[in-house]
C-alpha cells in the first residue's frame, strides 16, 4: 500500500517526491502494460471544427430503399441535382400566381437552418419581360419542406405550432382552430362546361355552385398567402391502391399538422416513385389560416372550400380542419372514377382468408367501423373504396377514426394505433402526464385520430381485393320496425343504397326522446358529385356481373322504438354478419315482410328466431303497424327528390327502383 503517496511499483500512479507550484502533489499517470487492467479507450477526435459541423455528422443523407430502374424503360437515369431541380420547378409552377408568368423562388429546406445557402429555382422562362411591377414576395425565397418524415413534422409542429404536444403514447396532439368539423355549406364547385351536364345540381345536391372567376380570386388569395410565408409544406402522394388507376396528388399547406395528416391519409410513395413523380393530377392549396374575402361573390362566411374540376385544383380558406382535405379529395374521386367506369364508394371493406370480400355501408352510429373490423378477416379499408374491373381497392393510405369515448376494451385496434406518427385532433390530455382523456368534450365531440393503415395489425397491404361477394347496408333503426337482417334484390339494394337511411335519437324540449330519421344518399351525400342514381346503377351492374348479394342489416332497436324497445345485441349482429360471410345465410328459408317487402330468414344460427321478424317482438301490434307506416312514409318523402331523374331504357330502371320501395 502506498500510504505515503509514492508509486506502488506497478506503474499505476505516483505523487512523486515533489510538489506542484500551487503546493499540491503532482499526479503522474501511466498505463498498465503487464495485464491490461488499465487501457486507453479514447478514440480519435471528431472530424469537426464547430458545433454546427458536429451536428451535421449526426444525420446521414437518405438513400432510396427501392432500386432505380436505370436505363430500363422510357427514361435514362438523371442526376440527383437535376431531379431536385425538376421537382422544385414543378412546385414553383404549382405556386405560380395567375397574374405572373413565373412561380416564386423556391428552395428546399427549413429556413431556420441559417447555415444553408439557398439554391433557388423558379419556373423557367428564359426571355421574360415583366408586364407588372415586381412584388415583395417575388424578391424572397419560399422554403419548401418536401415530403417530410413524421419525425421531422413532429419537430416542426412542436417548435412552431402552438397547441402541438406529444402525448403519453407518442401521438402528436394538435388543434384544428375555430373549426372542429367540416363546413359543408361553404364547400363550392365551379360550374362550367366541364361540370354543367355531368354534376348533380339543384334540390338535394351537395354541390353548391360558383363561377370560375370567383374560384380564381380565391386561388390567387390562397397562393399569395402561401408565397408570403417563409416556408410551406409540400406532399406529393397517391390516391387509390389500384396501380392502374392511382391518382397523383400534391398538397401545399402552411402547417406541419396538415402535412402529417395527409402523410397518413394518402398513399405514401416509395423513394423511387417520389423521384419520378412529375406533374400532379390534382393539387390542394391549403391556406386555411387565412380567411376568404367576405365581399367576394358567393362568399357567405370567412370560410370557403372550392373545387375546380377543370383545373384539377382545390382551394381552402378560413378553416384549419384537416378533414376538409380528405373529404375534398374523396369528392374528386367521386367525379374522376366514374368517368373510367369505376365505382367510388363510401364504405368499409374487409376480406376473409378464402378471398371473399364484403362491403359495409352505414352512417354514423350504425356500427360500420365495429363490424367491418374483424380479427378473423383482413381489413382492406375503413372508409373510401373503388370497385373496378380489377376488383376493390382502398382509395386512402390511412384511417380517420373517431376518438370520443374511445377505450381499449371497445376498440383495441384503434387504441393501439394511437402511437408515434398518429395525429390526434382536438383531444384533451393531462398537462403533466400527457395522458389523453377520450371522454372529454371541452374542445369538441368530434375528436379524431389519423394514422397509417398499417398500424392496424390485420390490414391487407397492398389494400386491394377481388370482387365483392356481399354488399351490406347498415341501418340503426331507432323506430324498431326493420328486421335484424334482410336479403335484398338488386332493385331493393339500389333503393336502400340511394336512401342511405339510419335513425338518430334526439331530445325534445320536454326531455322526451324520440327517433329522428336521417337519409344520406349513397351513404355519403356530402361527397357525391353525380346524381345518386348513377352510382346506384353502377353498383347494381357490378353486383349482377360478379354475383354479389345485397343485405340490409338493422343494428338498432327491437321490440319497440327507442325508449320502449331494446337495442339489438351486438353478439347477435355479429352472428348475422358471420352467417353472411360464410354463405350459410344464402341457404336459409325466407319469408316476406309487409309494407317494405323484405326477405327475412326463418332462422340464423346463434340468433333467437323470434327477433328475426320485428312484429313478433312488439307487444302492441297496433303501435307496430303505425310506426311501420310512419317510417315507410318518411322513406317515400325522402325518395321523391330522386324520382325526377330518369335512367335506363324507357325509364325502366327508375320504375324498378321505385317499385322496390315500401308499398302501402
From TrEMBL:
Q: Which reaction does it catalyse?
A: oxaloacetate + ATP = phosphoenolpyruvate + ADP + CO2
- InterPro entries for the chain: PEP_carboxykinase_ATP, PEP_carboxykinase_C, PEP_carboxykinase_N, PEPCK_ATP_CS
A single GO molecular function term of this UniProt record: ATP binding
Q: Where is the composition biased (Basic and acidic residues)?
A: 107-121
Listed Pfam families:
PEPCK_ATP
Its Enzyme Commission number(s) read 4.1.1.49
Alphabetically ordered keywords of this record: ATP-binding, Cytoplasm, Decarboxylase, Gluconeogenesis, Lyase, Nucleotide-binding
Pathway where it operates: Carbohydrate biosynthesis; gluconeogenesis
Record-linked HAMAP family: PEPCK_ATP
What name does UniProt use for this protein?
Answer: phosphoenolpyruvate carboxykinase (ATP)
Amino acid at each position: 500500500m502506498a500510504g505515503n503517496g509514492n508509486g506502488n511499483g506497478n506503474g499505476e500512479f505516483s505523487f512523486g517526491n515533489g510538489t506542484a507550484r500551487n503546493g499540491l502533489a503532482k499526479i503522474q499517470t501511466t498505463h498498465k502494460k503487464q495485464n491490461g487492467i488499465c487501457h486507453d479507450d479514447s478514440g480519435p477526435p471528431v472530424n469537426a471544427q464547430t458545433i454546427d459541423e458536429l451536428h451535421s455528422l449526426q444525420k446521414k443523407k437518405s438513400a432510396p430503399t427501392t432500386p432505380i430502374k436505370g436505363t430500363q424503360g422510357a427514361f435514362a437515369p438523371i442526376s440527383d441535382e437535376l431531379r431536385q431541380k425538376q421537382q422544385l420547378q414543378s412546385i414553383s409552377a404549382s405556386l405560380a400566381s395567375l397574374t405572373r408568368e413565373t412561380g416564386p423562388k423556391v428552395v428546399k429546406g427549413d429556413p431556420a437552418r441559417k447555415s444553408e445557402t439557398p439554391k433557388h429555382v423558379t419556373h423557367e422562362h428564359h426571355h421574360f419581360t415583366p408586364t407588372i411591377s415586381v412584388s415583395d414576395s417575388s424578391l424572397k425565397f419560399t422554403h419548401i419542406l418536401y415530403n417530410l418524415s413524421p419525425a421531422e413534422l413532429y419537430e416542426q409542429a412542436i417548435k412552431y405550432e402552438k397547441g402541438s404536444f406529444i402525448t403519453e403514447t407518442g401521438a402528436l396532439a394538435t388543434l384544428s382552430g375555430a373549426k372542429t368539423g367540416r363546413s359543408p355549406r361553404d364547400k363550392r364547385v365551379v360550374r362550367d362546361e366541364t361540370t354543367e351536364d355531368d354534376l348533380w345540381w339543384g334540390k338535394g345536391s351537395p354541390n353548391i355552385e360558383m363561377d370560375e372567376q370567383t374560384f380564381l380570386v380565391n386561388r390567387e388569395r390562397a397562393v399569395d398567402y402561401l408565397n408570403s410565408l417563409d416556408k410551406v409544406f409540400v406532399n406529393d402522394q397517391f390516391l387509390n391502391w389500384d396501380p392502374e388507376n392511382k391518382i397523383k396528388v400534391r398538397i401545399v399547406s402552411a402547417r406541419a399538422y396538415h402535412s402529417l395528416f395527409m402523410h397518413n391519409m394518402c398513399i405514401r410513395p416509395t423513394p423511387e416513385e417520389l423521384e419520378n413523380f412529375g406533374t400532379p393530377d390534382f393539387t390542394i392549396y391549403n391556406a386555411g389560416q387565412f380567411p376568404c374575402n367576405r365581399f367576394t361573390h358567393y362568399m357567405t362566411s370567412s370560410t370557403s372550400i372550392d373545387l375546380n374540376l377543370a383545373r384539377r385544383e382545390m382551394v381552402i380558406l378560413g378553416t384549419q380542419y384537416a378533414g376538409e382535405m380528405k373529404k375534398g379529395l374523396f369528392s374528386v374521386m367521386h367525379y374522376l372514377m366514374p368517368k373510367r367506369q369505376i365505382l367510388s364508394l363510401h364504405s368499409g371493406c374487409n376480406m376473409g382468408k378464402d378471398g371473399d370480400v364484403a362491403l359495409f355501408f352505414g352512417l354514423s352510429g350504425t356500427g360500420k367501423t365495429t363490424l367491418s373490423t374483424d380479427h378473423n378477416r383482413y381489413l382492406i379499408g375503413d372508409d373510401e373504396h373503388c370497385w373496378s374491373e380489377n376488383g376493390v381497392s382502398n382509395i386512402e393510405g390511412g384511417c380517420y377514426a373517431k376518438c370520443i369515448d374511445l377505450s381499449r376494451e371497445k376498440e383495441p385496434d384503434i387504441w393501439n394505433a394511437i402511437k408515434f406518427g398518429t395525429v390526434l385532433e382536438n383531444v384533451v390530455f393531462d398537462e403533466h402526464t400527457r395522458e389523453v382523456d377520450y371522454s372529454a368534450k371541452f374542445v369538441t365531440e368530434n375528436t379524431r385520430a389519423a394514422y397509417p393503415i398499417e398500424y392496424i395489425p390485420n390490414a391487407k397491404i397492398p389494400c386491394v381485393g377481388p370482387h365483392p361477394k356481399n354488399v351490406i347496408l347498415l341501418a340503426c333503426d331507432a323506430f324498431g320496425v326493420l328486421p335484424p337482417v334482410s336479403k335484398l334484390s338488386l332493385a331493393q339494394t339500389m333503393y336502400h343504397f340511394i336512401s342511405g337511411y339510419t335513425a338518430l335519437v334526439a331530445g325534445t324540449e320536454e326531455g322526451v326522446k324520440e327517433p329522428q330519421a336521417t337519409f344520406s344518399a349513397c351513404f355519403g351525400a356530402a361527397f357525391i358529385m353525380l346524381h345518386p342514381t348513377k352510382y346506384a346503377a353502377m353498383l347494381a351492374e357490378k353486383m349482377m356481373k360478379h354475383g354479389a348479394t345485397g343485405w340490409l342489416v338493422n343494428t338498432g332497436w327491437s321490440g319497440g322504438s327507442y325508449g320502449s324497445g331494446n337495442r339489438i345485441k351486438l353478439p347477435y349482429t355479429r352472428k348475422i354478419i358471420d352467417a353472411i360471410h360464410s354463405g350459410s345465410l344464402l341457404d336459409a328459408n325466407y319469408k316476406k315482410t309487409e309494407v317494405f317487402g323484405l326477405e327475412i330468414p326463418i332462422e340464423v344460427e346463434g340468433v333467437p328466431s323470434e327477433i328475426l321478424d320485428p312484429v313478433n317482438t312488439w307487444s302492441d301490434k297496433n303501435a307496430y303497424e303505425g310506426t311501420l307506416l310512419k317510417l315507410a312514409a318518411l322513406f317515400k318523402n325522402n325518395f321523391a327528390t330522386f324520382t325526377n331523374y330518369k335512367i335506363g331504357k324507357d325509364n325502366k330502371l327508375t320504375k324498378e327502383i321505385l317499385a322496390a320501395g315500401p308499398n302501402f
